[in-house]
Amino acid sequence: MLTLLCENRSFGGLHRRYRHTSAVLGCEMSLAVYLPPQALSGAAVPALWWLSGLTCTEETFMQKAGAQRLAASLGLALVAPDTSPRGPQVPTDPDGAWDFGHGAGFYLDASEAPWATHYRMHTYVVRELPDLLEAELPLNGRHGISGHSMGGHGALVCALRNPGRYLSVSAFAPITRPSTCPWGEKAFSRYLGSDPSPWAAWDATLLIPGALERLPLLVDQGSADPFLEDQLRPGELAAAAEAAGHPLQLRYQESYDHSYYFIASFIDDHLRHHAAALLV
Amino acid sequence: MLTLLCENRSFGGLHRRYRHTSAVLGCEMSLAVYLPPQALSGAAVPALWWLSGLTCTEETFMQKAGAQRLAASLGLALVAPDTSPRGPQVPTDPDGAWDFGHGAGFYLDASEAPWATHYRMHTYVVRELPDLLEAELPLNGRHGISGHSMGGHGALVCALRNPGRYLSVSAFAPITRPSTCPWGEKAFSRYLGSDPSPWAAWDATLLIPGALERLPLLVDQGSADPFLEDQLRPGELAAAAEAAGHPLQLRYQESYDHSYYFIASFIDDHLRHHAAALLV
Fold first, then answer.
1. ipTM confidence
2. Do B222 and A9 touch (CB under 8 A)?
3. Fewer CB atoms near the end CB (10 Å): N or C, chain B?
4. Which residues of B touch A10 (CB under 8 A)?
5. How confident is the model at residue B280 (pLDDT cuts 50, 70, 90)?
6. Has B30 been annotated as catalytic?
């Protein structure tokens, strides 16, 4: 059951923050939803899910991306979950690192103690939260998914692992090959264990060859992103997509970095990409 | 001299944060500037100044208002100063209140000790900072001014006190009658002294009758703003404008509150209002 925390009128629709108890994660979670004007006048609308990056919360995208203007015009709901389980009972990085634990759930289901109890963001995002929102909000069951950095990884993996679940997918500066980049290695070796064999099931580049559905991928990547070479490596995703015949539009945006100014600059393109699949 | 702190490509232009030493304020100040694409290809462009509200910094508007998309298209620079002098040498509220001192400079020139030494935001915003930016950035000397809440008060007062300085002015949910509202009384009685006679020179509603220039005012106010009755009171501004024959478009926006979601929803209207005066 959703408990309303706050509500703001926005572009004729409503931005809301909710809190609820997640059985999957074993903690209280906050999330943010934007309902376009169409949803306030009786229509059920499609939902674009947004998965945020490291250190972000459910508030970041809603405050900084400038997505609500066009979402209102198109009639798309926006859904922004938090980036990890939270709370005093949820273990986190013992050194307080910003790239593991709280704020860094990597949208996977952990298999290793002590993480496996709470860190099940994949099931939360793909199953529990959609079921809850569809029961309580005017959504029509049509879902797209996007995200940024760690959340771009999450969006690609959610779509590739769950054929039929999403009608559209895109990503901004995604971690495309987490099995072999520092952020991913740190997270996967703890959440999934030091044996890397199960890591492939959470790595977009490695999921491409066996994907059961060839959902077109739209990926924007800033050419001046400081994480491009060490962490993000979209070239490996592109090579895998080309080899598998998986449709991918990878756009390098000249001089753009990793910030929400980059996201805001191109979010309208992504909204239209999703709207083309979600609105019938 | 401006020192560049960071730079982000945004909508084909550049968002930048600078730091500089303010002689007027006697401290180091940060500010944010958005330069539209036109300014990067050799053109000098007009500037829309944005004065933020209580507790905000130079970052708030740039991150949350969604203004850069249309500013890029129109060819307007955006300038966002901080909301007060800052630093260990700058006195602030002894109880750490959020509505006085740091983050709450009220865009006036204080007359009372210990505030008068540093709290000279009016002269900083109207003279020192424009002179500096015009010397170092591709600006063409045409200025508009807007702001939110305390900054909406600041925008109206800056325009009303300095005929000819600004070609356009607007405000979101401004404090229109600071002399008689709790936020204003607290700030004015300290910055300007307990004798209220000099307060009128910093009160938009009281400046209207004697204004030497009838610059049209555009004011948006959310009808669900929790501060509407106690602090903002645009009805008093409207009465003064009507009595003086000062052009004012006061729009009550149904169900909107005091947040940046409200600002984002109507910022495009304000950008167009300013562009009509600033672009020739």
1. 0.96
2. yes
3. C
4. 261-262, 264-265
5. confident
6. no
